[in-house]
């Protein structure tokens, strides 16, 4: 395929505007161009289109999907909308990139995967953690037996205090592109720091160790309200959750999503009888190297925020144009979604949940 694909950006908030800054750079233009953006807040899509050079700005998603110049979409709306918007995109024949997380339930993820296969469209779901060189080196060391017998692991995030999303630059201004309300981050469905942030370490942990078998959890709300300017936001989704995963053969992992106090920040610590991966090191050996770069992130892209999400979009673009599948795929996303959904169910019921989904983790020959 020689013509650039047209991309439609769904939602014009924090991640969308950061991605549009990447998509307007000249090196991207030969492969994908900004065809349209939509957002239901009056004037926001138009303002984003003007600022970032998208060909069209729409107030409705339906209009964007009807635009024949849109070949693929990147869904940048609140997580609770992703499933329904994914279905609509597939029905319109568009390939889809999801800004994490793809859906909130396993059943919805199953349905998207089934529909995409039937319609012959591609799905890429962020975060594509296993595209990272450091994460791939960890998987390789594990597969080569460098850790000895696997013992246990711990990872997680501390985004539950909400401070990050309440204070992002798109939230603190007064014009339509800088007064984006973050209320959904605290509401059901789709809010809460696991779907938004802990999804990163969950992808990396399972990307390194492979699929988990069971999950149990304890969960609750630590901070009952937040303030966005004068607006009070009640916390509906738990902000303090500790998941306990079973990988089989007595290998267990703690995955926390809390309001403070990181044991390890995002990158997991994985312990074995012969060695440990701690953060981005194997013993004293650094696994994150200065020259590391994601396949599509060079030049100005490397200086811009969210370059890893731009990479995930370019994985979809490459898949559509060159038929090269991405490791940031819907099956891995579905497994992580099942862990999250089942974890909340375990916390509610007190019953450990069996996991039924799997995915194909990277083989040694691919690393
Ligand atoms: N903020 C970040 O740092 C960040 C980083 C990476 C990924 N993400 C992910 O990106 C997604 C969006 O997060 P965000 O922080 O950009 O949210 P946001 O609140 O900044 O923006 C969401 C936008 O979606 C719009 N919207 C609401 N309903 C819509 C609809 N029906 N159709 C189209 N647009 C609609 C809102 O008006 C708003 O402009 C989430 O899945 C989040 O996890 C966020």
Describe the structure concisely.
Pfam families: GFO_IDH_MocA (PF01408), GFO_IDH_MocA_C3 (PF22725). This protein has 367 residues and is α/β, with parallel strands linked by helices.
Describe the structure.
The protein has two domains: 121 residues, Rossmann fold, CATH 3.40.50; 203 residues, Dihydrodipicolinate Reductase, domain 2 (2-Layer Sandwich). The chain is 33% helix and 21% strand. It has eleven helices and 17 strands. Helix 6 packs antiparallel against helix 11, helix 7 packs across helix 9 and helix 9 packs across helix 11. It binds nicotinamide-adenine-dinucleotide. Nicotinamide-adenine-dinucleotide binds next to helix 1. It comes from Paenibacillus glycinis. InterPro entries: Gfo/Idh/MocA-like_OxRdtase_N, Gfo/Idh/MocA_oxidrdct_glycsds, GFO_IDH_MocA-like_dom, NAD(P)-bd_dom_sf.
What is the fold's blueprint, element by element?
Blueprint: E1 5-10, H1 14-23, H2 26-29, E2 32-38, H3 44-52, E3 56-58, H4 61-66, E4 72-75, H5 82-91, E5 95-98, H6 106-119, E6 123-125, H7 133-143, E7 150-157, H8 163-166, H9 193-209, E8 214-220, E9 225-228, E10 231-234, E11 240-246, E12 252-257, E13 269-272, E14 276-278, E15 281-282, E16 285-286, H10 307-322, H11 330-349, E17 353-354
Parallel strand pairs: 1-2, 1-4, 2-3, 4-5, 5-6, 7-12
Antiparallel strand pairs: 7-13, 8-11, 8-17, 9-10, 11-12, 13-14, 14-15, 15-16
Bound molecules: nicotinamide-adenine-dinucleotide (NAD).
């Amino acid at each position: 395929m020689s013509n650039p694909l047209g991309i439609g950006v769904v939602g014009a908030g924090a991640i969308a505007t950061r991605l549009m800054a990447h998509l307007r750079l000249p090196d991207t233009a030969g492969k994908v161009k900004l065809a349209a953006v939509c957002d239901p807040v009056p004037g926001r899509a138009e303002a984003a289109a003007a600022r970032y050079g998208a060909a069209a700005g729409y107030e409705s998603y339906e209009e964007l999907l009807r635009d024949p110049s849109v070949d693929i979409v990147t869904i940048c709306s609140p997580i609770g909308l992703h499933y329904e918007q994914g279905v609509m995109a597939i029905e319109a024949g568009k390939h889809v990139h999801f800004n994490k997380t793809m859906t909130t339930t396993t059943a919805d993820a199953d349905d998207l995967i089934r529909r995409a296969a039937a319609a012959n469209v591609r799905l890429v779901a962020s975060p594509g953690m296993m595209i990272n060189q450091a994460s791939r080196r960890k998987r390789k060391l594990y597969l080569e037996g460098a850790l000895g017998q696997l013992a246990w692991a711990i990872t997680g995030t501390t985004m539950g205090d909400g401070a990050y999303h309440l204070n992002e630059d798109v939230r603190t201004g007064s014009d339509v592109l800088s007064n984006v309300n973050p209320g959904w981050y605290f509401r059901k469905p789709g809010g809460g720091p696991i779907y938004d942030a802990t999804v990163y370490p969950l992808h990396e942990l399972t990307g390194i160790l492979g699929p988990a078998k069971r999950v149990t959890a304890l969960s609750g709300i630590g901070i009952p309200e937040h303030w966005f300017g004068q607006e009070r936001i009640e916390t509906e989704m738990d902000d303090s959750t500790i998941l306990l995963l079973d990988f089989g053969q007595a290998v267990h992992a703690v995955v926390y999503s809390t309001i403070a106090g990181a044991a390890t920040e995002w990158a997991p610590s994985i312990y074995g009888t012969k060695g440990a991966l701690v953060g981005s090191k194997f013993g004293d050996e650094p696994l994150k190297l200065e020259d590391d770069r994601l396949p599509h992130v060079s030049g100005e892209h490397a200086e811009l925020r969210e370059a890893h999400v731009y990479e995930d979009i370019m994985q979809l673009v490459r898949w559509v144009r060159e038929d090269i599948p991405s490791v940031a795929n819907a099956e891995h996303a579905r497994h992580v979604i099942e862990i999250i959904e089942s974890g909340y169910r375990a916390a509610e019921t007190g019953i450990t949940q069996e996991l039924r989904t799997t995915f194909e983790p990277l083989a040694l020959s691919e690393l």
